Amino acid sequence: MIANSATTIRFLLASRQCELNGLRALLQSGELVGSISQLVHMLQRERGTSNMFLCAVDAQFSGELALREEEVEKAQAPLMAQLARLESQIAELPQASRLFSHAASVVYALSLLPSVRQQIRQRALPLPQAMVFFNDAIRHLMALVFELSDTAAEPGISRLLIAMFSFMQGKEYAGQERAIGAAAFSSGRFSEEAKQKLGDLIERQERCFATFADFADDAHRLRWQRVVTHSQFERLRRIACTGREGDGADVCLEWFALATQRIDEMKTLEDSLAQALMTYCRERIAAAERASSEQMADIESLMSLRESDESGYSVFIDSHGWLESGGVRPQLGRSLLSLVQQQSRRLQALDTELAALRDTLNERKQIERAKSMLMQHRRISEEEAYKTLRKMAMNQNKKLVDIASAMLAVADVFQGTP
């Protein structure tokens, strides 16, 4: 019994240590998400300025474009350093193959930036292609954030990551709306394709911000409700969506300025979310360390009890399969049982809460997988793949996730066919 007690104690301590290691890894993930948030924002700003530069007829915005490029380079440096640190931890992350795959896509996309910038400055790259590049680079960064959210094994941190990812995604759609609107206002006309894209982006923003509200804490949810969209921006948005002719450069600049103001306000809230994530991670680590110390104190107390016991005691298994001890000193067995059951119940409660969060992430994952499949097989953009899925859902009066799941199931059947 004494040997078994010592083994039980070692496994209890190992369980606590693994939990602490996991929380420290999540803190590192939170730092990575913060760096991605900053880089995405700077890429959004460079995308917007590149859009205005390509729409202008002269060298207007060239100075601002150089500033945006410098901001991106500064934001890129800490992210690359964190990815390098992540790479050095491969042995500690045996289940992170998807994470490293997304990291590879990010690094490759960022390596193309110098060439794309040169083509933009030479006006050798058409505006739609330039926007596709920036959109794809940001999409790869967002996929990395989603993967970090998906692998979080602590419910509170997972909830914060989902809230932040959803908000970042909504902000990205707002950035795309700014770019498409600026190009259309600059030309003075809105094609049916542009109107459809704008309506689509507005809808996707609303859905992302609704998900954010579901998972955010009360303070950030209330703060988002207080973010008021400028009435003039709403007026220009209605003009864009209805296809009324704009007034050229002046309206384009006004649209761009108002949309930028709106996005910058979102970034302030996004920064607050990142800070809340880091604070919560540190609080959870501190709480886990305190709990570990308390558990160690309990164990030391039990060990002193065992050492003071000079009599033998018998051991039996109760009706539930748990180890009990009888005889002169049954306290040790019962106390160990209490520690084991307490830790088991706590981890089970965490797993139950985490499972509910996983359902939301799994829906998102299904849709993303279906989009990727369409993009690969039909050679279409992410936007076109999403529109295809949505149209199928509307035609069949089903949820988007149901269409995605059915499509993936059929694909799995064909892939499994010899």
Task: Give the tags.
418 residues, mainly alpha, two-stranded antiparallel sheet, 13 helices, elongated
Helical element count?
A: 13
- How would you describe the shape? elongated
Residue windows where pLDDT falls under 50 for at least 5 positions: 309-329
Distance between the termini: 56 Å
Report the portion of residues in β strands: under 5%
Radius of gyration: 27 Å
Query: What's the order of the H and E elements?
Result: HHHHHHHHHHEEHHH
Biggest sheet character: 2 strands, antiparallel
Relative helix content: over 70%
Secondary structure class reads mainly alpha
Strand order of the largest sheet: 1-2
Question: How confident is the prediction overall: mean pLDDT?
Answer: 82
How many β-strand stretches?
2
What do you see in this structure?
The protein has a domain of 276 residues. Helices cover 82% and strands 1% of the residues. It has a two-stranded antiparallel sheet with strand order 1-2.
